[in-house]
Write a structure and sequence with these properties.
2 copies of one chain form a homodimer. Chain A has 12 helices and 12 strands. With 347 residues, the first copy, chain A, is α/β, with parallel strands linked by helices. Chain A folds into 3 domains: 44 residues, no CATH class; 127 residues, Response regulator (Rossmann fold, 3-Layer(aba) Sandwich); 132 residues, Rossmann fold (3-Layer(aba) Sandwich). The first copy, chain A, has a 6-stranded parallel beta sheet, with helices on both faces. A 6-stranded mixed beta sheet of chain A has the order 7-6-8-9-10-12, sandwiched between helices. In chain A, strand 8, helix 11 and strand 9 form a beta-alpha-beta unit. In chain A, helix 1 crosses helix 2, helix 1 crosses helix 3 and helix 10 crosses helix 11. In chain A, 48% of the residues are buried. The N terminus of chain A is likely disordered. At the A-B interface, helix 4, helix 5, strand 2 and helix 11 of A face helix 4, helix 5, strand 2, helix 10 and helix 11 of B. The structure holds a DNA duplex (30 and 30 nucleotides).
DNA sequence: AATTTGAATGTAAACATTTACATTTTAGCG
DNA sequence: CGCTAAAATGTAAATGTTTACATTCAAATT
């Protein structure tokens, strides 16, 4: 028989596990078990408890649970800049598997501010977060080094990495992706191929630039290597695009950009200078964001499996949290999507 | 004198407030006060406590604090889709003032899934969140109605709203913004002006469409009204753009779009049909996202003060949380940015 | 010197869970 | 029927804070 009297003293207080216990005629321990480990509770009791829960409208107080269990079921996704649409689908992939496993995602936007990154790292020591997926290398190395020293600091990287700190990582092979892009441009007959890189200190850019140089060398074009530096954004693409295209040195006939936004900036620069793409200039982007199908001309670009990267990164982190010894590195495959911004030279 | 012995039994356990108290030679209550209300503690003690904190490396356990204070210092920002760059700067503005006040932001991506929205609302009743900033009207109305009934449910809306539920709101005047855009197009000599609206059931779109119709009427152009419906994304802009431009009915000479992405989609459609913008077709966007300066032609669009919207929304929410009776509505001003996608008809 | 005041501090309860351990109940078996 | 083992449940401690209330102490007032 269910106790149908609501017996809490303050009429409008939030029901606790005690109220459920009273209504179900059992102890709080049993209620707790009915929720956490239903198989340890008899069928009859479990049914009574569930009815009681519905009856009093109970939902567990998470702060109390977190305190007692010393966990937060929260994962921090640390990224340099939310406004970059590149990240949104990665986050989406992370959320899928995180929610599945009962975890929440806290998006940490560092905005290139070391203090913010530090604040987010601190969440781990205060039990406000259980792990971190690091999507940027633009944070104080000291933080990461310290974390790496701790035996099992649940930290994984995705897309980006550090050249000198070996952390669990989910990413594409940036060197190879770059080689593929340059190879393709060479196959179209281009000889003066420039790269519009992201920040020079960024390891993924270094990888891509290495691929660039290696491929040029493989085709005896090393003397033509030319790397400009941007910051992944539209504006830097435009500015560096202008610089590359209007210099006195012989103008490049192709530009490989480390992001789609920069590529679109280059398109604008070319337009302004009356250089037609792809007839007089080929442009390759990176990431295959939504925009790349809708700019003019549609962008040839390298596609990363963003959703899968997010999923796998979260998977990897969950393994770490369970104390399992997982694969530390996973390389996913990128591929070149040929659209309309590349071609053989004409006129 | 500070007690320099570390006296905790488990050598690697996280230091608690007790450890600090022991090291500072006072009670835990005093330590707590030294942190929360320093003015209630003598200078000497405060100094000792601070030294002790540094010495043992203490940082408070937030779960315990949340439990005791029955708060989480977390605000949920509920939005329909993270991948829309329109939201990122709003979030950014929210974060600025939230962090200032010691709050965190949890980004809740609903992905148009009612269950997700519900889950985020539930965070409030379980003390996992203290308030919600609602940036979408695409969630179950029942949720909102119920929230609205509760005396002081800390919920504010930004940008979007419900026509039949009166919640605290920070937004621009969508009707007026729309009038301004249409007026401008009329002033350029356009008569057949179409609108590419967002979802028809969306109140902000309804406002904009009302402005559209009112302005046409003011110019005796009502018979020319034509509204297509998209979903704010590139693809729908492209598809609806094609539909509007290649129909048998006389083709519109201007299209007012409810988002920049749709406007860029329309640009692509026009390009494909050989319609030149702005000579044969004018296009106006909405939101002034980064892209709008880099597409071809650069987009004439309506700019919303996104950062300020975020700041004010959070400000408003903080007022509610403090139990103050704040202004319930705040209208911020938008403005038309004229670029290259609009002009008088030529040829 | 006795009394009052206010500031500074301490004591211990409260927050809502989980879980180790103890106890009771049930089932199985000879 | 008695005994044992296993299953189900209960008791109470523990998690790390905050804070109401009590106490102490020093300064100010009479």
């Amino acid at each position: 028989m269910l106790n149908t009297q609501v017996t809490s003293k303050q009429p409008h207080s939030v029901p606790t596990i005690k109220d459920v216990a009273k209504a179900a005629g059992c102890s709080t321990a049993t209620v707790s078990r009915a929720l956490a480990t239903p198989e340890k509770v008899s069928d009859a009791t479990r049914k009574r408890v569930n009815q009681a829960i519905a009856q009093v409208g109970y939902s567990p107080n998470i702060a109390a649970r977190n305190l007692r269990r010393a966990e937060s079921k929260t994962i921090v996704a640390l990224l340099p800049d939310i406004s970059n649409p590149f990240f949104s689908e990665i986050i989406s992939g992370m959320e899928d598997v995180a929610h599945q496993a009962g975890y929440q995602i806290l998006i940490g936007d560092c905005e290139h501010d070391p203090a913010r990154a530090e604040a987010y790292f601190r969440l781990l020591s205060t039990n406000q977060a259980d792990g971190i997926v690091l999507l940027t290398s633009e944070i104080p190395r000291a933080l990461v080094k310290q974390a790496d020293k701790q035996a099992d600091f649940p930290l994984v990287m995705a897309c980006e990495f550090f050249s000198d700190i070996d952390l669990p990582l989910i990413a594409i092979d940036n060197h190879q992706a770059s080689c593929q892009a340059i190879d393709y441009l060479v196959s179209l007959g281009h000889q003066r191929i420039a790269t519009l890189s992201g920040p020079a200190h960024n390891p993924i850019c270094q990888e891509r630039n290495r691929g660039y140089r290696d491929t040029l060398a493989a085709h005896q074009l090393s003397s033509e290597a030319r790397i400009a530096e941007g910051n992944f954004g539209f504006r830097s693409g435009y500015q560096q695009g202008l610089a590359l295209l209007e210099g006195k040195t012989p103008r490049p006939t192709a530009i490989f950009c480390h992001s789609d936004e920069m590529a679109v900036g280059v398109l604008k620069a070319a337009r302004q200078l009356g250089i037609s793409v792809p007839d007089q200039l080929s442009v390759v982007g990176f990431d295959n964001i939504g925009l790349s199908e809708y700019c003019d001309p549609e962008l040839t670009t390298i596609s990363q499996p963003r959703n899968e990267i997010g999923q796998q990164a979260m998977q990897l982190l969950l393994h770490l949290l369970r104390g399992e010894q997982p694969i530390r590195h996973q390389t996913l495959s990128s591929h070149l999507i040929v659209r309309k911004s590349t071609g053989r030279l004409k006129g």
